[in-house]
Amino acid sequence: MRHKRELLIVAKSWAETRTPLSNRLNGLLWPRYAGIAPFLMTGDKSLMNFASDNATGASPKVLKAITEANEGAALPYGSDPWSARATAALAAIFERDCEVFLVASGTAANALALASISPPWGAIFCHADAHVADDECGAPEFYSGGAKLVGIQGTRGKIPMQGLAAALKAYPRGLVKQVQPSALSLTQATEAGTVYSLDEIRDLCEGAHAAGVRVHMDGARFANALVALGCSPAEMTWKAGVDVLSFGATKNGTLFCEAVVFFDRALAADFAFRRKRAGHTLSKGRYLGAQMLAYLDGGHWLDLATHANAMAKRLADRLGHVPGVRLPWAPQINEVFPVIPRRAEAPLRAAGARFYDWGGRGLAPGEDLAADEMQLRLVTSFMTTQAEIDDLVRILAAA
Ligand SMILES: Cc1ncc(COP(=O)(O)O)c(C=O)c1O
């Protein structure tokens, strides 16, 4: 009993640090649940979110579509009209017949896609800092039944051609004591907010295919990369040699909806079973379909990404004028990685700014951090306002 009470106190004080005053006052009406009445809570509007594009809400257009899809009954498990139309919409965007599967998270999309192109004894080549290697709790290894992720080093988050060639050489085909080259996973845009050019994608895909290796693209920030390159979705994927894509949408406006898109239908033969077995075949699948449809409708996804990228550019331009701040590379999408004086961190956090310490990842030799410097990852989103950017830069300049 005492234990239960202590737990409630911890939960209450945790919630109070995260909820605005209005919600804490609401708690007075329900004293037992002060600060944790979920139906009365809002996101914290006093926070300046530069931590992640996952910390934003969803696009109002997507939310409206979910509400509209709530009318009447629809067959479950993706056999609904919304999912069918979302599949057709994606095929139209990619200008080809393809197999599409909707899932609720990027980790599921990546891990299940990679499992489709790699046996348990496979080697999955990826960048050393890739989300699939660092941030998915071993899901690709788990769903593939044990494939090995082989990280390749490269500045600015990109796998260099020589790096891929060296990795392929290190894992010769047929050598029984080693895992066998199976998949290459390219993150577009990369973890460093850079974008592979079409030539770079083509070269890497050619190198992989020549070695019998299939290519996966982690497109968690697909729209941001596409807008940056100004090319077509087809050009950035299958026309350049990509076999299967994790088409991200959650960071850029859906509530929770991503798509696995197979450009080679044969590779998707078992996917329906993999997805179900993984618990990612949602019974009320119509809400996934409704999200994806609204996201794509009328180019909404591109408008959202265009805004997010423009905000990052504005932020970088402003930061470029702050003494003591340097930008090792210009942003291409909605992420900026400035090096700032370490003393500025505390005032920024005290003012409500949220961001990650990036620790110098992506820096080239010779750009190393000095002892009194730190590197931030600042992420903008479709919801970022000019005022938030100007506030952040003002606080930084005054620190
Ligand atoms: C490069 C990349 N891939 C995939 C994901 C998707 O992960 P999640 O499972 O959080 O949706 C993320 C999210 O942070 C990401 O940054």
> What is the CATH C-level name of the domain at 60-300?
Alpha Beta
Instruction: Identify the CATH homologous superfamily of the domain at 60-300.
Output: Type I PLP-dependent aspartate aminotransferase-like (Major domain)
If classified by CATH, what would the architecture of the domain at 60-300 be?
A: 3-Layer(aba) Sandwich
Query: Can you tell me the residue ranges where pLDDT is under 50 for at least 5 consecutive residues?
Result: 1-34
| SS content category | alpha/beta
Helix content: 40-55%
Any idea what the shape is? globular
* C-alpha-based Rg, rounded: 22 Å
Bound molecules: pyridoxal-5'-phosphate
Largest sheet properties:
7 strands, mixed
What fraction strand?
5-15%
Mean pLDDT: 91
Total strands: the figure is 13
Strand and helix order: HHEHHEHEHHEHEHEHHEEHHHEEHEEEH
From the N-terminal CA to the C-terminal CA, the straight-line distance is: 48 Å
Here the CATH topology of the domain at 60-300 equals: Aspartate Aminotransferase, domain 2
Strand order of the largest sheet: 2-8-7-6-5-3-4
Count of helical regions: 16
Give a verbal description of the structure.
The chain has 399 residues and is an alpha/beta fold. The protein has a domain at 60-300: Aspartate Aminotransferase, domain 2 (3-Layer(aba) Sandwich), CATH 3.40.640.10. The protein is built from 16 helices and 13 strands. A seven-stranded mixed beta sheet has the order 2-8-7-6-5-3-4, with helices on both faces. Strands 9, 10, 12 and 13 form a four-stranded antiparallel beta sheet that branches. α9 (198-210) links the parallel β5 and β6. α8 runs parallel beside α9 and α14 (300-319) packs parallel to α16 (386-398). The structure holds pyridoxal-5'-phosphate (PLP).
